[in-house]
Write a structure and sequence with these properties.
This protein is an alpha+beta fold. It is 13% helix and 30% strand.
């Protein structure tokens, strides 16, 4: 038993080393939407994707619980189903944030997530190296996350890497664009606080005219009833021991705060994956995103 545990620990250590060797992942210091940002950022789909093709196992599976770059894995489809050597697949996985089901960072967060669709993470890519009648062997050629038995495989589709504009040109006092406004509902790996270089998901998509390469402007209003980040109610006009304004101001009375902007990497009907290219302060789930 101790030997099995030791081998498993070594396997996970090797995986961690392999994952660290990949290109920068979302959330790194690189702001250029390069290959990793475009292909590792995850997405939300308004429709459930086909699940007929799966990763079913891999070499050394008697002790390997996950697979990463350089490993050989097995696919549940082969020559009889039209698979050929050289075929390339994206590896994705549906993941659910059980914490958000019970604890919302902001009011309506769970409802908005469900309305956007089904969340998928990008685990990486594989290329078929050997084909048998009913199954195939593939090599993991790119890793974003660990891969495991049951992961969904979809034919590889190249994702665009749109150019980004100079963050120095950000206008802190930009007027309202008049275009559709949505909400930052969640972030990569279900995070709720974000900064420059991180990936977030908004409830704007193709139905609102959004497309890859577009920019959205992030903002908030002080003292909105639905926000949970402030520690003191009414902080927009009063803070105990640090003065107050002559009258009470609501969020409707004060200028909006512009917090940053983000470039669109992936678009579905009701949602989009965007990369924050600039942030003047910390951004939270519940902040607004306006199409520029």
């Amino acid at each position: 038993m101790r030997a099995n545990v030791t081998v498993l620990a070594l396997s996970l250590l090797v995986f961690a080393s392999a994952a660290a060797a990949q290109d920068p992942q979302p959330g790194s210091n690189s702001l250029q939407p390069g290959y990793s940002a475009a292909n590792c950022s995850g997405f939300i789909s308004d429709q459930k994707l086909p699940e007929d093709t799966r990763l079913i196992s891999g070499e050394q599976s008697e002790y390997k619980v996950v697979f990463s770059r350089g490993n050989y894995v097995f696919v549940n489809r082969g020559q009889d189903q039209g698979v050929r050597v050289g075929d390339r697949f994206m590896v994705i996985r549906h993941e659910r944030d059980y914490l958000t089901d019970n604890v919302n960072w902001f009011k309506w967060q769970t409802k908005l997530m469900k309305a956007m669709g089904i969340s998928y993470i990008d685990a990486g890519q594989i290329r078929v190296v050997k084909v048998e009648p009913k199954v195939s062997v593939a090599e993991v050629i790119f890793s974003c996350d660990y891969m495991q038995r049951g992961d969904i495989l979809r034919p590889y589709v190249e994702r665009p890497q749109p150019p980004y504009k100079d963050a120095a040109a950000f206008d802190h006092f930009a007027p309202v664009s008049g275009k559709p406004v949505g909400t930052i509902v969640s972030g990569y790996d279900y995070s709720d606080a974000f900064g420059q270089g991180t990936t977030v998901y908004i409830n704007l998509g193709a139905a609102q005219g959004l497309k890859v390469g577009d920019y959205v402007r992030v903002f908030r209003h002080q003292g909105e009833p639905g926000e949970l980040t402030p520690q003191t109610p009414g902080y927009q006009y009063m803070l105990l021991g640090f003065g107050s304004s002559p009258i009470k101001y609501t969020w409707k009375d004060l200028p909006r705060e512009l917090l940053g902007e983000a470039i669109v990497l992936n678009v579905s009907r009701n949602s989009a994956t965007v990369l924050l290219t600039f942030s003047s302060s910390e951004i939270y789930a519940g902040d607004y995103a306006e199409i520029e």
